[in-house]
Write a structure and sequence with these properties.
With 156 residues, the protein is α+β, with helices and mostly antiparallel strands. The protein has 3 helices and 5 strands; from the N terminus they run ββββαβαα. A 5-stranded antiparallel sheet has the order 1-2-3-4-5, with helices on one face. The protein is globular, with a radius of gyration of 15 Å.
Amino acid sequence: MATIDQYNHRLLGFINCPSDYDIIFERTVNQIAFYELEQDIPAVETELDGKTGDILLGGGRGEVQVLRLSMPECLRFFHSNNIDKIEDFRKIIKSFWSPTQAFKLCNGFVKIGWNPDIDIEFWLSLNLSAYLIKKFNKFSAFDSEKIIYEKRLFSN
């Protein structure tokens, strides 16, 4: 059972990660689920955090370690292109990855468009935000022609 399974959430889709390594302990998997939280995560939780409406890439222990995107702050950030105005990036995008997990994930993401000169959390968050905006009506208010995503990253 993954950490996410303890909390109310909705599966939104999967991203591809063709890593040469097991991204989930002793399991050959090349897709990572992403979820929308349907409840606030209690402060005592250590594997992930977030509030209702936030997006989680990965489900924590038992799945891939989590990357959390605060909503709608993350969408607003990418839509307005105010990168230099964010004082604490971790307030809107937060990784729970260990260095080993990050290495394994990056091994796969570099094969489908990630450039190591770009922060991996930023690249994933930008692509995931663009995908949500284009594919889900509830996020469409943030749409613009400049918002695109790497199609090879997504399974659906």
